[in-house]
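TA notes, week 10

Several of you asked for a full example with nothing omitted. So below is the full record: structure tokens for the whole chain, then the designed sequence directly under it. When grading your own attempts, check the secondary structure regions first.
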């Protein structure tokens, strides 16, 4: 969609006639909450924000509507929680900013991906139909819903056998997190719901549908998560070979009008205006993904500038002026981040989630009590205990696969481990080893891009984890790169506000809006050569373990998952065999 073709393009002229300053709103939908930020269009100043924790959070153990237990590796959400963010966080952010709502000229949103909503023709989610409220497959499948791994394995195996041209664009493997694997799981585990579903919609597009009344599919998720390459989805023949009933999945459930990033998907409806307290008819930007939309917020719109959005997981995005096949990348999409450039994506499935898991389950109470006594968080306290220890003094190396491996192995049957534990190992030492493991995982990604002809020239961090200076210094030392930091605590929300400004016509394109509204502090952290040398030794051990457990030499992690699922009553027939998983891992060797 072109902004010149949309009535919202005239909104800035209307607004500036009566207001000296205009504003846009960016709404960032995360894993556990949604945040709205009010941004001044002229310079990107963030004037007010508000957060709403999702009332139903993440359903990964039981279905909220019935209390029924969910199988392992499920992660569901309730779509009404996303609407609640618009109803609560947006008006509160405007109030906090102290601005006239009439001066807001546009709104943009971003989402975790791949997060899928099954809906009927008018956009109503299946879980909101009373007859399906007790059916798990009627709910949103969050990005970290990983139980479609068997379907992903079959997609990868068949694509490799057939030599599908799109497979190398995704590093040789399709993830269980993405649209087609989750869609195939829905078909095979609840065919009635699959037939009732009219559209298989990214949450990033569903929320835009709710705001405008118009369904527009964004180019970002279509390319990265929906296997849309060179103007086409996987063929009927390929899909039918997976399952005859899946033959028309792309045509009937997925395909739709695709909007360019930064364009207007439509204008704010009367109903959504009532939710938000904003003017009806203002521009609503095409949906986007939290990681990709953060690039312009960090003024990272040129080739080689890798942005790592570090939160519960980490997504690495970067523009390039060449098309290359990078093993284990999540995808390369023409215009996937900025029009006119190839957008590359990689990622780690668990980062902040790993630290949170450790604190919640492995830290003795006395640590929490001492942190409270000092008036600091448990994360700050653990960091203070370990940050001055020499590199390698803990004698540990960990693998950061507690939520599987997104890049470069693309295998969610892998799991985390810590090697080197002794009876003298302290709690804070394991915590540091987990910090280091996530940095080692990032180094593996950066090295893979460099070796594939897509060099990383700058590393920029956005997201909540940038607030830990020791973690950032650890990354700089391990990567042997300076670390720049976005000068906003809300990079994705700022990026969404930037896209909203373009959709409203305030700037001609995203790079121009980025230059005016983006914020970054360059080279805040630089490598310590002595520490970097010491980390090289630990990284060598990480790399050995990475290949040993991740590329088929020892499939113990997969066997343990098979045993666990069988013990929980899930059976083992639905899981990939060792032979199958070894073949898949070999695709990235």
């Amino acid at each position: 969609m072109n902004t010149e073709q949309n009535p919202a393009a005239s909104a800035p002229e209307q607004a500036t006639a009566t207001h000296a300053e205009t504003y846009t709103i960016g709404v960032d939908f995360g894993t556990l909450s949604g945040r709205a930020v009010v941004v001044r269009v002229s310079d990107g100043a963030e004037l007010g924000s508000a957060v709403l924790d999702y009332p139903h959070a993440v359903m990964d153990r039981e279905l909220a509507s019935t209390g029924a237990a969910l199988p392992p590796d499920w992660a569901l959400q309730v779509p009404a929680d996303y609407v609640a963010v618009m109803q609560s966080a947006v008006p509160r952010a405007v109030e906090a900013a102290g601005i006239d709502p009439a001066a807001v000229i546009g709104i943009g949103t971003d989402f975790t991906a791949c997060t899928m909503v099954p809906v009927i023709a008018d956009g109503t989610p299946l879980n909101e139909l009373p007859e399906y409220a007790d059916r798990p497959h009627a709910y949103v499948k969050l990005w970290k819903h990983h139980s479609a791994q068997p379907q992903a394995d079959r997609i990868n195996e068949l694509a490799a056998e057939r030599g599908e041209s799109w497979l190398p664009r995704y590093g040789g493997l399709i993830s269980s997190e993405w649209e087609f694997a989750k869609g195939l799981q829905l078909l095979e585990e609840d065919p009635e719901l699959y037939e009732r579903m009219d559209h298989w919609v990214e949450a990033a597009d569903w929320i835009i549908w709710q705001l405008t009344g118009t369904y527009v599919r964004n180019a970002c998720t279509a390319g990265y998560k929906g296997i849309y390459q060179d103007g086409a989805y996987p063929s009927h023949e390929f899909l039918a070979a997976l399952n005859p009933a899946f033959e028309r999945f792309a045509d009937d459930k997925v395909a739709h009008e695709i909007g360019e990033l930064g364009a207007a998907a439509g204008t704010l409806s009367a109903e959504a205006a009532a939710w938000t307290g904003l003017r009806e008819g203002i521009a609503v930007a095409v949906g986007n993904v939290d990681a990709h939309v953060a690039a312009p917020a960090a003024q990272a719109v040129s080739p080689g500038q890798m942005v790592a959005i570090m939160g519960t997981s980490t997504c690495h995005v970067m523009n390039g002026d060449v098309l290359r096949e990078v093993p284990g990348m999540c995808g390369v999409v023409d215009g996937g981040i900025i029009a006119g450039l190839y957008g590359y994506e990689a990622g780690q499935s668990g980062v902040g989630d790993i630290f949170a898991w450790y604190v919640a389950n492995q830290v003795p109470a006395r640590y929490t009590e001492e942190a409270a006594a000092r008036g600091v968080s448990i994360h700050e306290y653990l960091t203070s205990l370990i940050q001055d220890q020499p590199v390698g003094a803990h004698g540990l190396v960990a693998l950061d696969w507690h939520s599987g491996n997104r890049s470069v192995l693309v295998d969610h049957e892998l799991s985390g481990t810590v090697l080197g534990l002794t009876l003298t190992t302290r709690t804070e030492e394991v915590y540091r080893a987990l910090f280091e493991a996530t940095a080692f995982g990032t180094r593996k990604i950066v090295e893979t891009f460099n070796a594939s002809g897509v060099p990383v020239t700058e590393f920029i961090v956005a997201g909540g984890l940038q607030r830990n200076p020791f973690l950032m210094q650890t990354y700089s030392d391990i990567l042997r790169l300076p670390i720049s930091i976005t000068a906003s605590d809300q990079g994705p929300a700022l990026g969404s506000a930037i896209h909203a400004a373009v959709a409203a016509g305030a700037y001609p394109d995203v790079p121009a809006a980025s230059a005016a509204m983006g914020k970054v502090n360059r080279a805040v952290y630089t490598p310590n050569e002595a520490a970097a040398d010491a980390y090289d030794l630990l990284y060598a051990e990480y790399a050995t373990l990475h290949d040993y457990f991740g590329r088929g030499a020892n499939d113990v992690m997969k066997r343990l998952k098979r045993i666990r699922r069988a013990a929980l009553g899930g059976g083992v027939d639905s899981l990939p065999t060792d032979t199958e998983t070894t073949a898949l891992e070999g695709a990235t060797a």
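Confidence is low (pLDDT under 50) at residues 1-18, 572-589. Use that as a sanity check on your answer.
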